[in-house]
């Protein structure tokens, strides 16, 4: 059986072989000859990786490798080149015996990119491709944008000192910047600084503010002198945002009614005030009538002899004659003042005046003779736009907003020449051309920083007249950062021209093949950097804080913690988290923190993490560290634990008063005063209050000499007692039309005032009462020594404040603010300062207005950007014993504000929620007190009285570094100080 199968298999195999080989016929038959393959070829390029710089060329050799006898020539072309790169010759002829050379040339503004180029050779119907990797390199460019912090407004460039002086209302300072690299040389405390000019002496700056004063600054010593502006120029109080200085020592100042912006320009106003720096006198120049006056800006000649401004007419001021000349607006803006006057400037000697409207620039001489007009390329806006003569006087510069661009006008030919981009993202309406130096460098404010624009670079041609100038485009980087010393492709958003070039911190970041990522260069320095994009037309845009290297913790949300821990707090910084799969480790004082939550990106790549703080040793200073996929970073001495923090259980507390003479804390209840020993934190025998009909007591006060406690009942009774002999109490009825007393003030003359209609005086010596018929405000407060009394209206929009003579009760009542709310009031211990506060539990944070004794509003508090809050105010404000600090309470913390700078010195997280609604009614009785040193605070909280011992006395608290360098506000300056804006300000939660 086996043999049969084997034979059959052999026969089958042989038969198959015959069929395949053609056995049985002539082996030399022509039908059995094989056809050779057709000729073909491949090509190669050498080198296959080509790199060239902008403005240069480089070559590659193209070689034909023949196959099967190919001997013809081929035509070589190139595709997929990046923008600005050309190749020659095109086409290139090559053959197997004759290789060719392709020369690649990059233009001066060729796209910085890495691309995969296709080299294709065609011969008849035959084609062959070779791949070439082409990289166009760009030289490093200056990183043109420097983040300063806050929100810069105006600037003055001093050519002699090579310094740029920039006002910064968001940080209550004047910033002194290097003219070389814009590095901060000094930060000069100057509350609400806004407009700026240099006096004719060449060494003194005059600064307008969004408060009720101006200031002068010595440029050499940086000493600041404040000049409060007298009240009485308006039916509402004025702020004085902008100034211009003349050769005769006079300074023209715009006076603005608060919250009433002139033609929607933040810095305009309704009055023109003149200050004589020689005599110190302030006078109102305009308006002569109350109607139709609206001045938006001021401009002067470089020699300080002439100034111009537009209002109901166009005004020319002569310093030599100290006089004004006026012409109708139609004269300077023909024909018919179409669209209104929107900007103006003078040349160096005042012989030329340029006036911009929405559609044209009009140039006149000093006699208002028309010299020429220019149609401008787009509608010129009023909001924050700037115009000025160029350094040579032959050209004119117009700054357009949104997108920010600088247009150049030739005043010889009266033509619009073109523009340069001056944009930074993200931005609001605060982009402003502050100054131009003699080297034609323009300094533009934006996003809390300064952008330098080289005005000598080639201009971008204008588009069709009347159409917007196209802005540059710049993608977002879709990654928060890289580890240090690492270069990698990073994905970018797709909303950008594929022909753009990219620079990170001034270094080229080539677009990678595929066009959806850039090769970010390595850095050994941790922190955020800018991304700059350059389009093929030369348009450039900076995306501020677009990327970061390593881990840079920036600041915590609070710097003082109770030692018990368990407080929810935030940390802000860069590189804190690399993505959803990253699990950063947060440690405080070497201890791991509680579970964290990611708060997202807040500004560019600024991130926030929220965590539970662990307990710490009393008085301990602790570092705060974050470790993520990008590395590790630490804030040294980030927080300090309090020496002591304890909650003393008690309920139904209405008010707290500290008796510095006896070193006791009094806590008012409806029918008694509880007495706490602040050393042992034990309760002493309470002081009973006599019943007053069916009502209870709601507010109390302690006389300045400590001899009397006064408790006030809404049932028209006052209990007066001696703290040393509390059983000796007198109950005194009084008459008023207010059944719910709001506030109480006790003078050094041993008299108490109960606010109402009328105001009731209690003579504590004779225990007699009398009526005082005077409007003192909804809330009145006395200084600790009883030497001063102030009042404020609460719950209405007048913003009215009052000063009351403690002896005669004469009331000083300046004009109210036009757009301001207050809800509480505090007075410094000696009466030289008062602070009005706007807060409630539904709003976020506190707005504090700081006044001097003459009722000049000199400052507002300003929140650090990364330490802003989402918590409402809860307790009455409290001055420190020395008046250097005012403490305000939020539901979860206490904030300590510097009364000189208006900035946040410290924030203390409290062990429990603070009390905000005293039962049974909400009143103005303060629920915060301090001991005589100001180092121990007592505050009403959810389960009792929280007693907090500070590391230093309030007056000595060191200002914490909140790193304001990343603060910006889209609508900076004056209008940030209205309640509506404050409630909606940028927050991080």
Described by the principal axes of the CA atoms, the overall outline is flat
User: How many domains is the backbone divided into?
Assistant: 5
Strand content: 35-45%
CATH superfamily of the largest domain: YVTN repeat-like/Quinoprotein amine dehydrogenase
| Overall residue-averaged pLDDT value | 89
Please characterize this protein's 3D structure.
The protein is mainly beta and 989 residues long. The protein folds into 5 domains: 40-137, Sandwich (Immunoglobulin-like); 190-327, 7 Propeller (Methylamine Dehydrogenase, Chain H); 488-549, no CATH class; 552-639, Immunoglobulin-like, CATH 2.60.40.10; 645-958, Methylamine Dehydrogenase, Chain H. The strands form 20 sheets. The chain has a 5-stranded mixed beta sheet, with no helix packed on it. Strands 19, 20, 21, 22 and 23 form a 5-stranded antiparallel beta sheet that branches. A hairpin with a 4-residue loop joins β20 and β21 (250-257). Mean pLDDT is 89; it is low at 1-31, 918-922 and 968-989.
């Amino acid at each position: 059986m086996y043999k049969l199968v084997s034979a059959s298999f052999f026969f089958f195999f042989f038969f198959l072989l015959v069929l395949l080989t053609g056995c049985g016929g002539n082996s030399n038959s022509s039908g059995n000859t094989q056809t050779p393959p057709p000729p073909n070829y491949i090509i190669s390029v050498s080198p296959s990786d080509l790199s060239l710089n902008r403005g240069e060329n480089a070559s590659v050799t193209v070689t034909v490798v023949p196959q099967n006898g190919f001997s013809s020539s081929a035509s070589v072309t190139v595709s997929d080149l990046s923008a600005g790169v050309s190749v020659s010759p095109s086409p290139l002829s090559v053959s197997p015996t004759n290789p060719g050379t392709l020369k690649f040339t990059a233009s001066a503004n060729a796209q910085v990119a890495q691309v995969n180029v296709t080299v294709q050779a065609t011969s008849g119907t035959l084609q062959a491709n070779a791949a070439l990797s082409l990289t166009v390199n760009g030289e490093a460019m200056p990183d043109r944008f420097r983040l300063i912090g806050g929100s810069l407004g105006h600037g003055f460039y001093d050519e002699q000192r090579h310094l740029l002086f920039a006002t910064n209302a968001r940080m209550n300072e004047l910033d002194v910047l290097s003219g070389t690299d814009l590095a901060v040389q000094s930060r000069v405390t100057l509350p609400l600084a806004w407009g700026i000019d240099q006096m004719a002496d060449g060494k003194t700056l005059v600064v307008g503010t969004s408060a009720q004063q101006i200031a002068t600054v010595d440029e050499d010593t940086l000493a600041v002198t404040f000049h409060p502006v007298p009240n009485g120029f308006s039916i509402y109080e004025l702020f004085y945002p902008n100034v211009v200085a003349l050769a005769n020592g006079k300074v023209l100042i715009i006076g603005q009614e608060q919250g009433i912006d002139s033609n929607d320009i933040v810095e305009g106003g309704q009055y023109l005030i003149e200050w004589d720096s020689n005599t110190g006198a302030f006078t109102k120049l305009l308006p002569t009538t109350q109607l139709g006056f609206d001045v938006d800006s001021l401009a002067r000649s470089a020699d300080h002899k002439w100034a111009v401004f537009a209002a109901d007419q166009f005004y020319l001021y002569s310093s030599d004659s100290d006089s004004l000349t006026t012409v109708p607006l139609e004269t300077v803006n023909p024909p018919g003042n179409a669209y209104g006057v929107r900007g103006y400037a003078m040349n160096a000697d005042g012989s030329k005046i340029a006036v911009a409207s929405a559609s044209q620039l009009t140039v006149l001489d000093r006699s208002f003779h028309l010299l020429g007009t220019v149609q401008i390329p787009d509608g010129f806006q009023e909001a924050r736009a700037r115009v000025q003569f160029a350094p040579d006087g032959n050209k004119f510069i117009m700054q357009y907003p949104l997108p920010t661009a600088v247009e150049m006008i030739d005043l010889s030919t009266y033509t619009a020449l073109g523009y340069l981009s001056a944009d930074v993202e993200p931005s609001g309406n605060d982009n402003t051309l502050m100054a131009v130096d003699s080297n034609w460098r323009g300094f533009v404010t934006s996003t809390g920083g300064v952008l330098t624009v080289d005005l000598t670079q080639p201009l971008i041609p204008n588009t069709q007249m009347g159409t917007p100038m196209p802005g540059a485009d710049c993608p977002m980087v879709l990654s928060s950062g890289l580890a240090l010393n690492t270069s990698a492709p990073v994905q970018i958003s797709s909303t950008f021209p594929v022909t753009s070039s990219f620079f990170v911190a001034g270094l080229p970041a080539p677009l990678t093949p595929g066009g959806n990522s850039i090769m970010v260069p390595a850095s050994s320095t941790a922190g955020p950097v800018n991304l700059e994009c350059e389009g093929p037309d030369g348009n450039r845009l900076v995306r501020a804080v677009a990327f970061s290297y390593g881990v840079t913790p920036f600041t915590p949300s609070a710097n003082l913690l109770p030692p018990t821990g368990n407080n929810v707090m935030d940390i802000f910084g860069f590189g804190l988290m690399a993505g959803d799969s990253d699990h950063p480790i947060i440690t405080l004082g070497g201890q791991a923190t509680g579970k964290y939550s990611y708060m997202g990106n807040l500004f560019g790549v600024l991130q926030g993490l929220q965590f539970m703080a662990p307990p710490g040793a009393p008085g301990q200073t602790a570092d705060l560290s974050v470790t993520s996929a990008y590395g590790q970073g630490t804030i040294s001495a980030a927080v300090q634990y309090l020496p002591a923090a304890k909650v003393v259980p008690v309920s139904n507390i209405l008010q707290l008063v500290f008796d510095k003479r006896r070193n006791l804390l009094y806590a008012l209840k409806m029918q008694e005063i509880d007495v706490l020993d602040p050393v042992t934190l034990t309760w002493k025998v309470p002081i009973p209050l006599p019943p007053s009909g069916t009502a209870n007591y709601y507010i109390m006060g302690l006389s300045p000499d400590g001899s009397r406690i006064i408790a006030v009942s809404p049932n028209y009774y006052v209990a007066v007692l001696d703290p040393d002999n509390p059983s000796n109490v007198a109950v005194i009825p009084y008459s008023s039309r207010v059944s719910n007393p709001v506030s109480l003030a006790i003078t050094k003359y041993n008299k108490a005032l109960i606010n109402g209609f009328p105001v009731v005086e209690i003579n504590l010596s004779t225990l007699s009462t009398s009526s005082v018929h005077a409007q003192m405000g909804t809330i009145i407060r006395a200084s600790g020594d009883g030497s001063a009394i102030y009042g404020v209206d609460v719950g209405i929009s007048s913003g009215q404040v009052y000063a009351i003579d403690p002896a005669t009760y004469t009331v000083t009542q300046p004009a109210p603010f036009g757009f301001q709310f207050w809800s509480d009031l505090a007075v410094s211990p000696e009466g030289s300062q008062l602070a009005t506060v706007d807060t409630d539990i539904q709003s976020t944070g506190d707005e504090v207005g700081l006044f001097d004794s003459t009722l000049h509003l000199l400052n507002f508090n300003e929140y650090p950007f990364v330490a802003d809050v989402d918590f409402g105010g809860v307790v009455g404000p409290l001055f420190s014993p020395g008046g250097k600090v005012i403490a305000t309470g939020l539901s979860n913390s206490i904030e300590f504000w510097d009364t000189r700078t208006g900035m946040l010195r410290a924030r203390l997280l409290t062990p429990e929620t603070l009390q905000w609604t005293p039962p049974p009614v909400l009143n103005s009785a303060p629920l915060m007190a301090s001991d005589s040193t100001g180092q121990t605070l007592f505050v009403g909280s959810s389960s009792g009285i929280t007693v907090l011992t500070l590391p230093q006395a309030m007056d000595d608290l060191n200002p914490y570094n909140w790193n304001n360098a990343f603060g910006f506000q889209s609508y900076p300056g004056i209008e940030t100080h209205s309640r509506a804006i404050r409630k909606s300000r940028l927050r991080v939660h």
